[in-house]
Amino acid sequence: MSAAKEIQNPNSSGQGFYPGFAPKHHDTLIAAGLTYSHTTPIAMLDGSTLHHHTYRLNRKFSVSVWLRGERWIWAGSVAASGSHYQGRGDASLAKYLKGAVRRHKLSS
Description:
single chain, 108 residues, alpha+beta, globular
């Protein structure tokens, strides 16, 4: 079964709950207070599917993680602000989340 077919309750864009996923940074995101929101399947030019897993702190702040080749990449963003930060590795994500979660908990 293809991963895209495993997404449950997809909306018109194909976003939905992706059971059994285990992105590398899951534990770091949960420990920082974010919760899993949804997964977006993205069709790549080579025919493969990239799964973009999104976690949210509140309506404004989210972090997404995805596997690109052999590396997990993460990106944090603030809705409607244009603010975006991208990185690799658990240590850099934990450092980013420490300040970002504090700022966005106070502003939500």
